[in-house]
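Audit log entry. Action: structure prediction of a protein-small molecule complex. Ligand: pyridoxal-5'-phosphate. The ligand was supplied as SMILES and no pocket hint was given, so placement is left entirely to the predictor. Protonation state taken as written. Sequence taken verbatim from the request; no trimming, no tag removal. Recorded inputs:
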Amino acid sequence: MDSRIRAPFLKDGVIGQRHIAHRIPLSRPFVGLEEKAAVLRVLDSGMLAQGAEVAALEAEFAGLLGVEHAIATSSGTAALHLALLAHGVGPGDEVITSSFTFIASANSILYTGARPVFVDIDPATYNIDERAVEAAITPRTRAIMPVHLYGQMSDMDVIMSVAEKHGLAVIEDAAQAVGATCQEGQAGTFGTGCFSLYATKNVMSGEGGLVTTNDDRVADRVRLLRQHGMRSRYVYEGLGFNYRLTDVSASIARVQLRHLDEVIGQRRENAAFLSGTIRSVATPQFAEGRGHVWHQYTVRLNKDHDRDEAIHRLAEAGVDTGVFYPRGVHQIEHVRAAAGDHHLPETEQAAREVLSLPIHPALSKEDLATVAAAVNQL
Ligand SMILES: Cc1ncc(COP(=O)(O)O)c(C=O)c1O
C-alpha cells in the first residue's frame, strides 16, 4: 500500500486521566501528495466554485458507474434532497426507508414535506428487510429509499421489482457504498443514486455529494435545483437551492476516485483478517454475491456485553470505536413527531448491540492485530 496512506497516527493520546501511547483511530481521511497538488492547482487556476473540476468529477464518476449522469452537490444530504424533489416527492407523500441509518436519510424526506415510513431491517445485513417493503406501500407511497449500510448493498432485485409493480421511484442512499456491487450491478445504478463525499467516506472531499441517474429528466431537475432553479444566467424556473460543490473539493474527490480500487481492496483484506481472528463477538455477515466495500466493519456484541464498558475497555487498549447508530431514526423526536410511532424491534436491538471497529486502509498489520486481540478480550 502506497506511503500516502501509511503515515503514522498520533503517537500520544489521552483518555480521561490516562496517557495512551498509540491510538488506533476509527477512521482516517485518505489524503496524500496528489490531493495536495490538485488543490494547489485549483487555487492557482482562479476558478474555485463549480467549474471545470466539478464537470470532470461528474464525467469520471458517471464513467465509473456506467450511468448517463452524475451531478455533484454540496453534500450527500443535498443529493438525497434533490433526488427526492426531482422525482416529485412532496407534502402528502410517503417514502419507505430504513430507520437504521444516519439521520440524513430521514431528514431529506422531511425537507420535502413527505413522511418517512420505516420498515424494519434484516438483522443479518442491517439493510432494510426487502421482503417487508411491499406490505408498507399505501396509496400515498411515492418512493422507496433503500440505504446501502456500511458499504453493503440492499437486495435491489427485490426492491426494483416491487417498485416497478407499484410504479414507485427508487432513490438509493448509497452514501456509504461507492463501488459496492451485487450480482446485477453497482450501487447507484438501479434507481437514482445518492453518494456522500464526507470526510470519512471511501471517496471523500471533506464535504460533497453526487446524484447518479440514467433519466435525463431527473438529471435536468437536479441540475436546476442545485443552482436556484436557474436555467441560464438569471433565468429561473422556480425555487431552487445553492447546493453546488466547489472545484477545490472536486479536485480532491477526483484523485480519491482514482485510488478507489486500492482502497476497497485494502478494506477487504482488513475485514478478512478481523473476521478470521475475532472470536468473542459476532462478525459481520454479508449476503451472497455482494461486493462489500467495508465503509464500516461492525460487530455485534452479545447480550452479556455492556457496550459502554466494551467501548471503554477498547479505548484503554488504544482502539477507537464508533456506534452507527445508537438509535433508530424513528426514535429521534423530530422524526417521530412527523413520521408517527413505528414498531421496529430488529432496528432497536441492533442499535443497542452494534459496534464499529477501525477498518481503514491506513491500519498496519500490527494495528489490526491489536484491534482483534482487544476485542477477543471483551
Ligand atoms: C447513510 C447516509 N446517508 C446520508 C448521508 C449524508 O451525507 P452527507 O454527510 O454528505 O450529507 C450519510 C453520511 O454521512 C450517510 O452515512
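Audit: result stored. The first strand starts at residue 13 and ends at 15. Residues 75-77, 101-102, 104-105, 147, 173, 175-176, 196, 198, 209 surround pyridoxal-5'-phosphate (CB under 6 Å).
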